[in-house]
Amino acid sequence: MTETRKEISCGAVIIRVNHGKLQVLVIRQKQGHWCFPKGHVEGSETEHETAAREIKEETGLDVRFLDGFRECTYYSPEPGVEKKVVYFLAEMSGGREKIQEEELLEMHWASVIDTEALLSYPNDAELFHKAIAFLHKEDPDGVRWPLN
Ligand SMILES: Nc1ncnc2c1ncn2[C@@H]1O[C@H](COP(=O)(O)OP(=O)(O)OP(=O)(O)OP(=O)(O)OC[C@H]2O[C@@H](n3cnc4c(N)ncnc43)[C@H](O)[C@@H]2O)[C@@H](O)[C@H]1O
């Protein structure tokens, strides 16, 4: 009997406020799908360390994680592999946009509506809805996070 191999990646839904509107960072992988920055855990990294490193490598950006949000998605990237991706919610805090050309085709700051339309996989869309619901609960009046 062949054993199932387990993989874990970590990443984040990254947000910023630009001209009074909330924007979300979406990336397009070389395989063609739109998703959020993420990548495999290396060595003894914590989940946050992995997410921060992968975000920096893929986008050039630094982030500040928002407390209280951690959600997982699950899928099989290839037969015999079970993959779990741990997602945080993070605010862009600095750095300079620089796409990782070996793995990505493009990155884009999108509105909430455009992000929903762009995401390629239903499990990523479900994760995104949870992130938006979290922001709305934290800030119902949309003062800090204008959900437009
Ligand atoms: N265990 C390991 N440790 C360290 N490095 C490893 C490793 N395994 C592989 N690597 C290598 O490391 C490189 C960089 O990886 P990373 O950059 O570290 O990893 P990743 O983004 O989590 O994933 P990856 O690029 O492997 O593919 P994904 O799941 O998005 O996409 C793979 C497939 O899943 C599909 N998919 C993606 N997201 C999905 C979703 N949400 N739902 C369903 N299917 C999805 C895609 O269409 C695609 O066909 C890879 O090129 C790989 O060669």
How would you describe the overall organization of this protein?
- 25% of the residues lie in helices and 44% in strands.
- The protein has three helices and seven strands, in the order E-E-E-E-H-E-E-E-H-H.
- Strands 1, 2, 3, 4, 5, 6 and 7 form a seven-stranded mixed beta sheet that branches.
- A hairpin with a 4-residue loop joins strand 2 and strand 3.
- The longest helix has 17 residues, at 122-138.
- The protein starts with a strand and ends in a 10-residue tail after the last helix.
- It binds BIS(adenosine)-5'-tetraphosphate (B4P).
- BIS(adenosine)-5'-tetraphosphate binds next to strand 1, strand 4, strand 5 and helix 3.
Taken from the alpha-carbon principal axes, the silhouette is globular
Figure out the total of helices.
3
The SSE string, one letter per element, is EEEEHEEEHH
Q: Tally of extended strands?
A: 7
Regions with pLDDT < 50 over 5+ consecutive residues?
Answer: none
Q: Report the major sheet.
A: 7 strands, mixed
Helicity, in percent? Answer: 25-40%
Give the end-to-end Cα distance, rounded to a whole number of Å: 52 Å
| Multimeric state | single chain
Distinct bound molecules: BIS(adenosine)-5'-tetraphosphate
Overall structural class, as computed from helix and strand content, comes to alpha+beta
Q: Which value, in Å, is the CA radius of gyration? A: 15 Å
Strand percent estimate:
35-45%
What's the pLDDT, averaged over the residues? 97
Keywords: Hydrolase, Nucleotide-binding
Domain Nudix hydrolase: 5-136
Pfam family, one: NUDIX
GO molecular function, one term: nucleotide binding
